[in-house]
Write a structure and sequence with these properties.
The complex is a heterodimer.
Chain A (H helix, E strand, L loop, with lengths): L4 E2 L3 E3 L5 E6 L2 H4 L3 E7 L6 E7 L4 E4 L7 E6 L4 E6 L8 E9 L3 E5 L3 E5 L2
Parallel strand pairs in A: 2-11
Antiparallel strand pairs in A: 1-3, 3-8, 4-5, 4-9, 5-6, 7-8, 9-10, 9-11
Chain B lengths: L3 E4 L2 E4 L5 E7 L7 E6 L6 E5 L3 E2 L7 E6 L2 E6 L8 E7 L8 E2 L3 E5 L1
Parallel strand pairs in B: 2-11
Antiparallel strand pairs in B: 1-3, 3-8, 4-5, 4-9, 5-6, 7-8, 9-10, 9-11
The chains are: A mainly beta, B mainly beta.
């Protein structure tokens, strides 16, 4: 199973941006997509978007369009999720996951807690 | 977007019980459905994909069925290690956006 390693916890002010990283293996980057999923405290899972690094294709959930940007650095096999115009409701654990047909989200990062507070 | 509805939201059962969780899609998704198990403070773990294919390493007491709009996850004999929250997720035609059910919290009676 692939090991995805995410960056550490962040505390941000309302209105600012956060950028979370997710490092994978080179094999993953050349074969799989990377999805981002978030989970607010005590709540369920919410898919945010994904990137297919070897095709440079991104897809975003409608509710995050315009606020989220997912990128990938193929030289370091690292995916990034940047969320802007942060508000308190964005306080959540953000996960990256390997994404492939048909096993979809089969390996997950450890999660990154983003706290938005003034 | 396709909406996913799980039931029940909470389920209390005894060790050894047969447990069933249901997931309904707002439109047909064929068998493009996955199930995940999540324990507190941990990332979700893939249990099942394409509605009924068991992920490698997952105990055989877990099974999945269904197609179209109605799906079930069954645990044939509940074990203490199965205490977790379970989520279904649709990924129709492997085409985003993906959507999750709201989750079913499984507790020991």
């Amino acid at each position: 199973q692939e090991q995805l390693v995410q960056s550490g916890a962040e505390v941000k002010r309302p209105g600012s941006s956060v950028k979370v990283s997710c490092r994978a293996s080179g094999a993953t980057f050349s074969t799989y997509a990377i999805s981002w999923v978030r989970q607010a405290p005590g709540q369920g899972l919410e898919w945010m978007g994904r990137i297919v690094p070897f095709l440079d294709i991104t897809n975003y959930a409608q509710r995050f369009q315009g606020r989220v940007t997912i990128t990938a650095d193929k030289s370091t096999s690292t995916a990034y999720m940047e969320l802007s115009s942060l508000r308190s409701e964005d306080t959540a654990v953000y996960f990256c996951a390997r994404d492939a047909n048909p096993r979809v989200l089969d390996s997950w990062g450890q999660g990154t807690l983003v706290t938005v507070s003034s | 977007d396709i909406q996913m509805t799980q039931s029940p939201s909470t389920l209390s059962a005894s060790v050894g019980d047969r447990v069933t969780i249901t997931c309904r899609a707002s439109q047909s998704i064929s068998t493009w459905l996955a199930w995940y198990q999540q324990k507190p403070g941990k990332a979700p773990k893939l249990l099942m994909y394409k509605a009924s294919t068991l992920e490698s390493g997952v105990p055989s007491r877990f099974s999945g069925s269904g197609s179209g709009t109605e799906f079930t996850l069954t645990i044939s004999s509940l074990q203490p290690d199965d205490i977790a929250t379970y989520y279904c997720q649709q990924y129709k035609n492997y085409s985003p956006p993906y959507t999750f059910g709201q989750g079913t919290k499984l507790e020991i009676k």
